[in-house]
Structure formats: C-alpha cells, structure tokens
Amino acid sequence: MKKSYAVLAGIFLWQLHTYAQAPETGKTRTPQPTQDRPNRPVMPMPGRLYGKLLDAQTGKPVPYASVTLLKQRDSSLVTGMLTKANGDFSLEGLAFGTYIMRINFMGYNSVQKKVTITGQSIEQDLGNIKLQQNVKLLQGVEVTGQKSAFTMGIDKKIFNVDRNLTSAGGTATDVLKSVPSVNVDLDGNVTVRNAAPTIFVDGKPSTLTLDQIPADAIESVELVTNPSAKYDAEGMSGILNIVLKKNRKAGFNGVVQAGIGNNNKYNGGGNISIRQGKFNVFANYNINANQSWGEGTTNRSNFGGKGADTSYLLQQSNSESKPLFQFGRFGVDYTIDNRNTISLSQNIVAGDFKNTEDLLSTFSNKAHRITRLSDRATTNDFNFRNYTTQLGFRHTFAKPEREWTADINYNTTNSGRDGSYVTQAKNAAGQALGQSLLQQNTSAGSTTFVTVQTDYTTPIGKKGKLETGVKTTLRRFSSSYDVYDKDTLSNHFIYNNQLSNNYKYNEEIYAGYANFANTMGNFGYQAGLRIEQYVYAGEIPGKATYKPTKATPGFFPSLFLSQKLKKDQELQLNYSRRVNRPNFFQLIPYRDYSDPQNQREGNPNLKPEYTNSLEFSYVKNWKTSNLLASVYFRNTNNMISTISTPIGADTLLTQFINANRSNSYGAELTMKNQVLKGWDLTTNVNLYQTDMKVNANGETFDNNGFSWMAKIISETKLPAGFTLQVNATYQAPTIALPASGGGRGPGGGGFMMIPTSAQGTIKGFSTVDMAVRKDFGKKKATSLTLSLSDVFNTREYELNQATPAFAQDYVRKRESRIVKLNFSYRFGKFDTALFKKKKASGGNDQPMGDPMQSF
C-alpha cells in the first residue's frame, strides 16, 4: 500500500514540477502539423461564421453583397459568397486560424473584421452588420479555445470519446471508466467523488442503462461536479451528460466499424451525415454482443441470538450472460434561416438477453459440519424496446449571446421476461432429497418519460447575462410480476400470490430557474435559484395505494464566485443545494425472495436526501498543460442507505433506510499535460473522508473512513502511425455507500447483485487497460485498434461486513480481461454544394474559391 502511495504521489509531483516551469502564454495556440505527428488523419473543420447585412439607415436587408474570407497571413482567398435576398450569409468548413473578413457592396463603405477560430465555439453569429457611408471599421471578433481529448475547466470537464482507444467497440460503461473523477463498479453503478451523480443522455433523462449505449455512438461525456441552478437539482455529486454523435460538417461523411473479442464478443455499425443547404441529415446504427461470465462467493457467520447456536453459510455462484444490443438513431436539422433551426431525432434501442446462474448454498453448524445443501439453477430470457423522440427549436438574436430554445423529449420502454428457478435440496453428502422444486415467472413492464422545457438567455448591461427557464418532467411506470409453482402431485403450475406482484407509479417534477452572471474586472459572480415541485403516487393493485406526496416546492440556490489572477490562473468558490429522491424500487414494500438467504425489501417511508455542496477550486494553465485543484465538502441529510438484519437462522433481510447524517469532504487534483512531443498524460487523484451515522432497529451504526482514488491516462504517438493508450486506476479501501443504478426490481433484473450497506467496507482494487491503434491508408482514414482490458485480471468486488449479529465476506468477479480487435474506416467529402449545380457568378449563394476537400 505504501508503495502505491509513493508511486502515484511521485508521478503527480513530477508532472507538477515539470510544467510549473513551462513558459507562460497569454493565449491558447493552435497546434501546427509537425514531423512527430505525421499520422493524424486530415479532418475537415466544422467552423462556421454567419450573420445578416442591413442598411444602416433603413434597416432593410442588403442582398447580393460580397462577403469574402482571407487568410490573415498572406491575404489568400479562403472562401466567400454573395448574401441572399434577405441579407443572410453563412461561411462554413473553416479551419482553425486567423482570418480577415471583407464585405463590399456598391454604394456602401467596405467593412473588415478580424476573426480567429480555434474550435471551442464551432458556430458564431456575427449579428446584424449595418452598412453605411463613412463608418469606422468594425471591431474584430475572436472565437477562442481548442478541442482536445480532454477539456478541463472549473465548472465542466469534457471528455471526447473519439480519442479514447480503450473503449472502442464497448459501451458507455467502458467510456466512463476512462473519465477522470468517475468510478464505475462491476454492475455499472457510477460514482463521482464517492457519491452518485445524475446521468443524462443528450441533456435529458433516459431509461437506458450504460450497458445499453454503445461507445461508438457517443460524441463526448460532460461532467459538471457542482451544477448551477440552470441544471436539474437531482444528483448528489453533480451531472454526467452523455452526448450522442450528430455530425454538422457540410457535404457527406461517416464511419463504418466492426470488431471481435474473445468469448463470443462482436460489434459493428456505422454512422453517416449529409449536410447541404438548409438540411443536415444524420443516422447511425450499432450492434453489440458481449457474452460474459461471472462468479462469486458469500461466506457468512450467523452468531445467533437469545441462546441460538452459531451457524455458517457458504454460497458459490457461477453465471453467464448473453446480451445482444441494437442501437439506431436518425434525425434531421432544418435551418429556416441563420437564426432559426428546428431539430428532430429518433432513437430506437433493442435488447435481448439470456442469463443463467447456478447457486450452491452450503449450511454448516457451530462445529463447521455440513448439515445440508441447496442447489438452485436460474434461467432468464429478457427483452426490451426503447424509443426516444426529440424535437427542438433554437432561435438566436442579432444581439450576441441572446438565445431562446424549446425542447420536447418523449421516451418510452417496453420490456418482458420469462424465467425459471429449479431448486434441489440435498443432504450433507450431496445426495438429492426428494424432487426438485420448479418455479416459473413472467414479467412485463412499461415506462414513459416526457420532458418539456424552454430556456432563454439574454445579456444584461456590458458583461452581465441572465438565464431563465421552465421544465416539466412526467414519468409513468407499470410492472407486473407473476410467479407459478409446479405442484408435484397434479403436475400443474399454481399461481403464487405471495411472490407475485403488480405495481405502478407516477412521478411529476415542475421546475423553474433564474440565473444571473456578471463580471467586474477580473472578478466574476453568478447567483441562481431553482424551484422544483415533486409529486409522487404509487399503487399496488388490490393491496395498497400511496397517495400523491404533498406538493411542497423545494428551493435549490447556487452561488459561484471567481477571481482571475495573473499568468492564466483562476480561483473559484461554488455552493449549491441538491436533492436525491428515492426511486420506486427503493419505495415499494415488496420483498424479493429470488435468493432465499439474501432477501431485499423497499421502504415506503423513505424521505428524499438533501445535499449542500461547497467547492473551492484553483486552475492554472501553461503552454501545454493545465492543473485543476479542488477542495470540497458535502453535507447530506436523510442519506438513503441500506441495513442488513438477520431473520431466521441463515437469512439476511436488506432494507432501505434514511441515515441520520453523512458528511464527506476531500481534495481532488487533475493535471493534464504534454510530457513530451507526442506523449499526453492526464492524472487524477481524489482523496476523501466520509462519515455516516445510522439508527436502525434500536441500534446505531457509525461508518466512517478515509479513502482515495487515482487515475492515470497516457496517450503516446509512436512511429509508423501507431498510437498507444494506457489507463490505470486504483481505488483504495472505502466504506460502502449506495451508488447510482443499483437495485433490481421484483423478479430480478440481473443476477449476482452487489449489496451496498452502511455496515461494510469495500476492499481496494486496481486495474489497467491498454490499447494500440494503427492508422493507415489514404488520409489515414482507416484504423485498427487492439485493446486489452484489465491486463492483470485484478478487477473484482469484495465487501466485508461485521456486526454483533453476523459477519460476512462477499466476493464477486465478472469477466474483465477482454481482448478486442476493432476496425474503422472514415469516409466523406467536405462540399458546400453537394447537390447543387455550379451557378453563374450572379447566383446569390455561389461559394467563392474552392473550400471543398476530400476526407
């Protein structure tokens, strides 16, 4: 352990020492092609400048005026056009660099603008440009920034998935494993700074799990650790937003890919986009099959009570999963004019699974002598279909930074399951006792998720900005779970009323927010307030009805203060209040008997947990590196956790409860730099202390401890077009806390579920992933990627629990060392007149020069 501390500390301090001495720079410089980077594919640039020409006196549009763009360096022509009848112009496909824009028309003075494009702001509205006589040259407009594999800022971190080699051919789970600050356990449960974030897809709620989203369909991942009032208040540790691909390059372009892996794993698919004139059409499809195995052991000592003897339980499980996912997406953007755009997209996701598990339970007495055994075989066939429709409208104004958007998101999922349990009781010698017991189950469920929102942003004064918006979220959920026991005498199946269950619930959230930001010199501030009204109602037909919760508004303020210092440094202090509401599986008082020795039950009396987050951050930028250092504190009231209680001689019942309190505080350091030319390194270290107190069943449990997590992501450009990426993660031992995505509903939803509890400690683990890519062919558009996950096969989960009533060690391992070979081919042509014939020079949108490039 001491060696691990020393190695990680040494790497981080070496990075900091090396780049603290780097020469200062006031501006981000665009990387120029060099001999050490000969293998990067030539990509068409998506930069776009647009605006409208107006007569300064009459305010009427100026049609057919000449708009040209020249390189500042040598005044060579890049592109140009004549304005349309309504005065609109749009210049697309612009590479990073500095340009001079010239506007000329007979009877008006010429206008000249200096424009710098570096990629962060892909599109810029230059507003209404007024032409008149005897005017001074308009002031220059600059767009600053640079896209890279990992963009780091105080309020947001953006991880660009295309640069992540280790997740090629995988899922969103594999992508998040490579994102700094994020931890993903074996079940896909996600934590950020040891707490659960809210996960969005394209900024909206979704019923999809991480394993259902292919990595090849993801553009980027945005991590907001302390969101402002503009964002949903849900989530203890912020927001993770998964942004799906939607290409906006002019012309046509796309990618096809395919991959294979050991143990019957394969993936394939592609995407294509076509943009011409007012339309941008895009589509992608991916298929992914990742067969995997799992194994686990539970070793429990039951100390008994009131004179009962100590007994022992050993459970050994082996499981296999055969999932098949298909992901399809298509959509269109229609640009009415330069300032009005309508977008429509449709996602279709299908999943089919076949899961099997064999669980052997061995029961022993206080002398450790086996008294009996139970062998249970489980089979589940599960399928789902998910449909998401998104409709959006965006209107920008001539005044910079003024914008109005409106969005509707409709998401629905239908699922079904057929399963069976075959249980065979055995004596101490392993001989069958009587006939096996057969139990069959079927389930069906549906979820509808609707969000409607509108946002408006407008500048206030010289440097102020006001953001306002309202949002409505509606969710309808229903599920039926029917269990049948086979009668050995009649050979018929009999309905089991005790284990069967039907339920449904409605969830409604109504929200509004206002956010104001301003700067005074180098000092900036942002203050906001979000108000959310939450209504929940549930029903178990024929058994119980849970009336709608009292519609009491919740107030969620946020405050951000920032101070820019010399030499590209900045300090920021943030505060926000957030909420984590219990989901239906935590609320429903249904008991899950799928594992008779480990039963689970919801709690209808659960309360939402409220978190106050405080964060102080420091950012320093050098020429080729930057550092983000943060210290944070979280106070959570009514934290949702679980408690395990013995019932009977060898059975544990796990229930959800509200903890009395939970405090978490720590420090996080993230450093991203270029160690040498062609070698980029990102290091992330999170050190934290967690204290939790729970009162349950007349007992008090204090669970507290210090822990830390570290990630290193290394990318190296090698000769002959090779790129090597290595991702290493170490998670030190930590107390067990609930994570997002956990819990299965009645009838199971998986197998070998990881328990979470206020009573346990999770053992530390480490893992290393590696991948190498070779780019070749014309324009380096073809790539082969060979990846190996969990190189040393060390990724597993172990939970140790000790109470006066029982002691338990729970160990779980899933297939994690996986070899994959992925092929991809990029194609396309950057062409602003893809479907148009060349027009004469008098046409009103004829490109000047030839910006077309082959991809």
UniProtKB/TrEMBL annotation:
What does the record say about its membrane topology?
Multi-pass membrane protein
Q: What are the TM regions of this chain, as residue ranges?
A: none
Tell where it localizes: Cell outer membrane
Q: Which residues form the TonB-dependent receptor plug domain?
A: 169-239
Q: Which domain of life is it from?
A: Bacteria
Outer membrane protein beta-barrel domain location, by residue? 395-736, 757-825
Q: Where are the stretches annotated Disordered?
A: 23-42
A single Pfam family, by name?
OMP_b-brl_3
Signal peptide span: 1-22
Keyword vocabulary terms for this entry? Cell outer membrane, Membrane, Receptor, Signal, Transmembrane, Transmembrane beta strand, Transport
Is the Transferase keyword given for this protein? Answer: no
Where is this chain primarily localised? membrane
State what protein this is by name. TonB-dependent receptor family protein
Q: Which species expresses this protein natively?
A: Chitinophaga nivalis
